[in-house]
Design a protein that fits this description.
By secondary structure, this protein is an alpha/beta fold. It has 9 helices and 8 strands.
């Protein structure tokens, strides 16, 4: 399995990171993609290594970390990182209106910059979207010129929104929310194509049932995979193979 979205570099794992990696290997996790929260995340990512897990870095600024004034060097710095061969995606970026709508203009500007860079370097953009779906999809629609690929991370939209996203060239990141009993995401996901989906954890956040409320980690991805197998009437091996193949193709690994 490939965890396409994990903040495994964060301090929440400092005390037992080796044990977390051991459990990941035991669960069948072979690779972890690490989206940035800000440029400071990159130094944390570069400290990680394990003989049985491949780590893949990404660079970007999370929408909740966008400042009132975007620095003039913002785009150049993002492009400098994302051009490097050892960076595999741009983000995470996107929009978040849940915590605050004070900096919507700046979030949109940042998101546009990330999309522009993603097209330049031909790497997928990783999209955070919280209570901002229509604006998010509108920006993708404006930016899509045939060269933009990406992932709607933590997909929890409607069937129509999912289809629109796929039509716009996005893949869907499926995480712990699909296992939540009353979220309804499982019913939506079941009406969308599995070949456009990838597994993710968003560790340390959004642990799947039956680990809900605990710190999330890559090993828990198996519960999400089991849920997808149940939704699509497939074996766990088939879900693993399909989502892994899709992730490898999108990220070019």
């Amino acid at each position: 399995m490939i965890d396409t979205h994990s903040h495994i570099y964060l301090d929440q794992f400092n005390e037992d990171r080796d044990e977390v990696f051991r459990r990941a290997v035991e669960a069948g996790v072979e690779a972890i993609f690490m989206p940035a929260i800000d440029f400071g995340s990159i130094a944390q990512m570069e400290k990680l290594s394990h003989p049985e897990i491949a780590f893949y870095k990404m660079a970007g600024i999370h929408p909740c970390d966008v400042k009132e004034e975007l620095p003039s060097s913002y785009e150049d710095k993002l492009l400098k990182y994302c051009t490097k061969d050892d960076f595999y995606g741009v983000g995470e970026t996107g929009l978040d209106y849940y915590w605050s709508t004070d900096l919507v203009k700046q979030q949109k500007e940042s998101f546009n910059i990330h999309c522009k860079v993603a097209k330049q370097v031909q790497k997928p953009v990783i999209i955070h979207n919280r209570e901002s779906t229509e604006d998010m999809l509108e920006i993708i629609e404006q930016e899509q010129d045939g060269n933009l690929a990406g992932i709607w991370h933590c997909f929890n939209g409607t069937v129509e929104e999912g289809k629109r996203a796929i039509d716009l060239g996005l893949h869907l990141g499926i995480g712990g929310v699909v296992t939540f009993k009353n979220a309804g995401v499982d019913k939506t996901v079941g009406q969308l194509p599995l070949e456009k989906m990838m597994l993710e954890t968003d560790a340390p956040y959004l642990s799947p049932t039956p680990k809900r409320g605990k710190r999330n980690e890559p090993a828990f991805m198996k519960f999400t995979a089991e849920k997808l197998a149940d939704i699509f009437g497939m074996s766990l091996v088939e879900v693993d193979e399909k989502t892994t193949e899709t992730a490898r193709e999108l990220f070019g690994i």
